[in-house]
Specification:
296 residues, alpha/beta, five-stranded parallel sheet, 39% helix, disordered N terminus
């Protein structure tokens, strides 16, 4: 299993079949082979996959899911990334195979790369999505200042990675694949919107517990929500970002706000993005909240 002592960079990106990938140890070399290994992964009947695009609230929903599955309000410390298994990391598969308890798996890749066996048997998938404007701002701030990442302004990043988003398939492709899979019932998927969970965490944590078919009461749900609040997670979780920060700091959690994109997008950028969104998401059945209405 990989350890926190194993440093890795995030630049230059790897290009494969028209998409770009971070040069994580698992993706260096034969990218096609890695992706096929993921599709061929030996999924168990009770495995749960948490699928999300980068910076969509993955670790937040993962921690909530972990507590629900394990019937505890203790933080997950089973794996060095605070995730039980990252499906993009085949070198960790032996670690996963040795686990006797229920496995919570995770992937940032599009639906087409999920394990075929998992989909065919109707095993549970949680799909986490976030409005793309806040997600883009979060991604920029996450990458800025990291070891090896080029020093660029927000305006430069917007042109290179927002208008031309193709990392791990890009946000639009990722969202459309999962939403299409939900619409046509291609898999057993529960969609969790970041904004919904942010606005009403009790309601949507309860909905998630129902999907996972785990026992709960109001007291347990409230305690899970409290322990998984942004402030609590930011102060208490250890994560992989310490390995790519020049000072070894955790930078996974920044603001956790809804509507922060308004502090970054210029009027022109917002108009460009809205036009792109309308084009890409035409006839796609999803409604994101881009900013809170009224006091929170």
């Amino acid at each position: 299993m990989t350890s926190l002592d194993d440093k890795f960079g995030i630049w230059p990106l790897i290009e494969y079949n028209g998409w770009r990938y971070f040069p994580l140890p698992s993706m260096v070399g034969d990218v096609g082979k890695r992706l096929q290994q993921m599709k061929d992964f030996n999924s168990r009947d009770d495995d749960v996959i948490l699928a999300s695009c980068y910076k969509a609230g993955t670790h937040w929903i993962h921690e909530i899911t972990s507590m629900l599955l394990n019937q505890t309000t203790e933080y997950n410390t089973k794996h060095w990334t605070s995730l039980n298994l990252q499906l993009e990391w085949p070198e960790d598969y032996k670690f996963a195979e040795a686990m006797s308890e229920q496995r919570l798996l995770q992937s940032h890749l599009p639906f087409e790369f999920l394990p075929t066996a998992h989909i065919n048997k109707g095993a549970k998938i949680i799909y986490v999505s976030r409005n793309p404007k806040d997600r883009d701002v979060s991604m920029y701030n996450f990458l800025h200042g990291k070891i090896g990442w080029p020093d660029m302004t927000w305006n430069e990043y917007f042109d290179k990675f927002v208008l031309n988003d193709d990392i791990y398939g890009g946000w639009f492709n990722h969202a459309k694949q999962y939403i299409d899979a939900i619409k046509h019932k291609k898999a057993n998927i529960c969609q969790v919107l970041y904004e919904d969970m942010w606005l009403d965490p009790i309601k949507h944590t309860t909905r998630l517990a129902d999907f996972l078919e785990v026992p709960y009461d109001d007291t347990f749900i409230k305690e899970v929500v409290k322990k998984c609040s942004f402030h609590e997670l930011k102060n208490k979780k250890i994560d992989i970002t310490v390995t790519i920060h020049p000072e070894g700091k955790s930078t996974l959690f920044r603001k956790g706000k809804l509507g922060d994109w308004k502090n970054w997008f210029t009027v022109s950028q917002n108009e460009q993005f809205d036009a792109l969104y309308r084009k890409e998401m035409k006839n796609v059945d999803v409604n994101f909240v881009f900013e809170p209405s009224g006091p929170i």
